[in-house]
């Protein structure tokens, strides 16, 4: 009886000791099971045979061999499982990140512009923008944007102005490929090469395409968001020398020129949980005569509470005149196309002067009567009045707007802008002191796909 109890006690202890020595849980479980299955046989044999040192060594050797086989089996199973996980990851990547991705949005727009001393005009248009992304590999991809527009007011398309491509008034450009660039990583630096859209913070001083390159680098901060620094260089369009006193080539050229080179640095730095400080320093150089202008803007945006956001910025250029601008905007809530019923309401106060804008004369689609999309129609509808007597170098006014998401992947935008256009003389580069009333209403419905 004592021998039987000794055998029954030693076998589980031996099994447990062996499992502890090997340290592999699945193999240990197999050994425990093996020990349990073998216990009746051992007990039966123990009744007939005495327990000796040799029998215990033999039993231990058998158990160790079975444990080794279990560990080898576990290794093979783990290898198969790793291979299966890799195949599943590849399938998920192809599904979530397809080699070619196409998305975009359509816009239905109605603009109503009103200029003092001119009968108001409006423009109805429909737009479609397609974005095509091609993933080359894990580091590099190719991106393009294709824009198509049709003016519903006069049935002119995106590839000609009212006068036609080769006629006076023709836009003389097309936009089937608005952007086309390669994007990738060189170490920790994000790089773009090609034709891409460049927007300064809040689109305040720069909002135009650039044919060139961009390098962005992020520095981790205490606030969980990276401080971003972006260096840009390339050829672009600009009106910055329109009415500039030092411009000896074409001071009256209100249409601007694509013969400019830009070099700029943008920074966006988190300084608190919901607060960022931004800056943009840029140099525009006309390649014909190497005349250049520099502009610096600084600003910030912060959340005053969960729903209220405040943004503001100011800019100054090294031009002699029209060289200071600023804005301040207060926004309540945020309209998100993926959240039906979401909305926002905002009010924005402007003081814009032409020589602080590195690309456009004014931003946010604010214009004067000489704008190419309207001046011909204004002249025809207002005989005896010349739009060229109403060139503006300054806008001082207010915008009130609201955005609403009625259903998912759509957005309705409404805003009304009003204020004073300060007239100026491009030959002198100074304001004349006369101000025209100006207002601008836009209704737009966007559909995303």
Total number of strands: 17
Coarse shape: elongated
Give the N-terminus to C-terminus distance in angstroms: 82 Å
Structural class: alpha+beta
Count of separate DSSP helical elements: 4
Radius of gyration based on Cα positions: 36 Å
**Average of per-residue pLDDT values:** 85
Helix content: 10-25%
What are the secondary-structure elements, in order, as H or E? HHHEEEEEEEEEEEEEEHEEE
What is the topology, as strand order, of the major beta sheet?
Answer: 1-2-3-5-6-7-8-9-10-11-12-13-14-15-16-17
Structure summarized in a few sentences:
With 449 residues, this protein is an alpha+beta fold. The protein has helices at 2-22, 25-48, 53-96, 375-381, and strands at 100-115, 121-135, 141-151, 156-157, 179-186, 189-199, 207-219, 227-238, 257-272, 275-286, 292-303, 308-317, 324-332, 343-353, 392-404, 410-425, 430-448.
